[in-house]
Design brief:
Elements (H helix, E strand, L loop, with lengths): L4 H11 L54 H24 L7 E2 L2 E2 H20 L18 H10 L1 H16 L2 H31 L3 H28 L6 H75 L28 E5 L5 E4 L7 H5 L6
Antiparallel strand pairs: 1-2, 3-4
Helix pairs in contact: 1-8, 2-3, 2-8, 3-5, 4-6, 5-6, 6-7, 7-8
Length: about 375
Amino acid sequence: MPVDVESMSRAGSAGTGLSGGFVSDDRTCVRCGYSLRGLETTGACPECGTAITRAKKSVRHSDNLVDAPLGYIRLMAFGLGLQAASVLAIGIQFFLPSDWTIGPFNLRGVLFTLATLVWFGASWIVTVKRPRTERIVFDEILDNRHIRNVSRWAQGSAALAAMVAWAAYATGSGILQGLAGLLMLGALYALVPMGVYLSSMADWAGETEEGSRLRAATWCIAVLGTLELVIWGVLKLSPPFAMFFAFAGVIFGILVFGGVLVFAWSVLMLAKAAMWAIHNAVQAREREIRLAEKRRRRAMRDAARAHAAEAAMAVGAPPALESYADDPSVIPFDDGHGAAEGDGRPTGMGPGGTESRVERTSDPDDSQIYGLAPED
């Protein structure tokens, strides 16, 4: 029967994986970030030539910070590093002498103000919207716009408190001093939404221990801080057991301070984890690029072989059956018609150049073959 070269070519192409389709999502190149939408999945990035890597299918808790684009990971590492630096600066200023000044400005006040401003800016960086790719699974906290906005704007309380404190220092106003104290209290509670967000960030980065610490510190600040406020409010009323309430207020204050220290330590560890995530992401991307490049070369090799086989079949394919009709050197196939002469069929030239003929004989009886009686 004739060979269907076109169908074999299509089958060869399908076997090589060249019909894998096109990139239909917002996937970007793992090396240069170029948009790959509409390109063949077995192709390469037109910007840098990097092979297109496969999409990773993942479920909740199986994705990781490493799966995010490298630029986003570096931005997170930078933001968390700034947060860690501001936490260290705030801690250091408590140990500085209160009478140290820089010209007319108190050194502790300057350092605290700068640290709060850095914290505010770093919080905006850390809470930037996550990129939506096929590698990143939706998270109800990290991808919640309201949580991100509250976490961002609430962090401005500390910086605003520092500014009001400077105004109170310059004017000697007791009202401004009281307002600065209230704003600092608000800054303490502002750590709660940030702690919720950062704990989810830690879980996403695989740092579950740091995530648990951040959640514990957040609850400690929120619950015990509220209880301490209630206690000091009760003390204003001069209750009968004032000493008991004062003692409880001191204990709760120590616990809240401990929660803040745990929070600060967890931020430092999360910043360190982000730096490691950059290193791991670079290695993972390079490995994916190597594998994708191997797949692309294998597909190109298989395609070349399929095209070579197609060309060979097009040149050396056997002719159709009708071309054998006038060739006496080839025994024609049975076309279902009777022979030209009796039951015999014409053949090609036999040995010695003589025309040979094949005679059809009557088929033997089953009884003759198997030695059976006719009635069997």
